[in-house]
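Onboarding guide, step 5: your first structure request.
Type a short instruction followed by the sequence, for example:

Predict the 3D structure of this protein.
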Amino acid sequence: MEYRRFHPPKNRKNELIRKVKETFNIDLEGKDIEVMENERIVYLVDKLPAFFEEQNSLYPTICGIIRLELKKGLIVIDEGAVKALSKGADLFAPGVIEYKCSESVGGTVLAVSLSNYPIALLKMLVSCEEAKGMRKGKIAKNVHCIGDEIWAICKQFGFRLEKI
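The system replies with structure tokens like these:
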């Protein structure tokens, strides 16, 4: 898929810097910020695809989480869930091995394999506390995974999957 790549106007750049500071407590002041745009918007920070927008929400990419050392709650998943989530599926309770999170509804967590590789960024449909008691049902929506277009952009910029 073809993206248009450009440096954002000053007001858009300042808005992103403010939003990232408020949401993730990361200061992007003085960093080189670029935008990659098609149906999706991906923000590059010093040539790293670090953030993306989806439905007016700002999310970190998996490569951004690792390189910028963002602290995220974790959900350890089994191999069946790894295969499903890496293809874009949502997370259901039976695929969970362990919860290492405290996020509430709407918060984001990182799904990781048993060997600690990140698989997907998930938006919680129930709180982590509530999810711990669930044995069936959908607990989180997949917003970004290692099999999607955003991950392909991370790979284009030389990023390889790393343990967290």
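Each response can be followed by summary notes, for example: The radius of gyration is 16 Å.
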